Amino acid sequence: MADAPLVGIIMGSKSDLPAMEACTKQLEEFGVPYELTIASAHRAPERVHEWASSAADRGIKVIIAAAGKAAHLGGVVAAFTPLPIVGVPMKTSDLGGMDSLLSMVQMPSGVPVACVAIGGSKNAAIYATQILGATMPEYREKVVEFKRAMAEA
Questions:
Q1: In degrees rounded to 5, what are phi and psi of residue 140?
Q2: Which secondary structure element, helix H or strand E, spans residue 138, and what is its range?
Q3: Neighbouring residues of 82: CB distance < 8 A, sequence distance ≥ 6
Q4: DSSP letter, residue 84
Q5: H-run or E-run covering 67
Q6: CA nearest 146: which of 114, 119, 122, 115?
Q7: Does the global pTM surpass 0.90?
Q8: In contact, 105 and 120? CB cutoff 8 Å
Q9: Phi, then psi, of 34 in degrees rounded to 5
Q10: CB 6 within 8 Å of CB 33
Q11: Higher pLDDT residue, 68 or 9?
């Protein structure tokens, strides 16, 4: 994207890309610049560490972390950054995504990860934009307009 990214999206596998399309589409509709990377907390922990620990210095304000199969990507990212993390649990064939959900919402005290519904990538984008809107009026107005349009539909 042309502007410096404000939202960082990280997912554990390329297979998560289709489920995250609703997220990237919503961010684009809001005009929120983002960056996207694929790095597994278990298969590429050094890459996750480097990406997460440098996110704030790169201008990222919010991180969306998507993972499945009880992968602790959101928690690992949260351990390496002071930025807010929004977890997106991926639906899985084994347990329907409950493993993913529980690994995100059952974080230990001091390492919070906010969490949307299983497969709720669009809501992750909306929530990230709401976080930006707390200090950036242009994004708050995008959310106000979005909610107004929903109410009028």
A1: -60, -40
A2: helix 137-152
A3: 56
A4: -
A5: strand 62-67
A6: 122
A7: yes
A8: no
A9: -140, 165
A10: yes
A11: 9
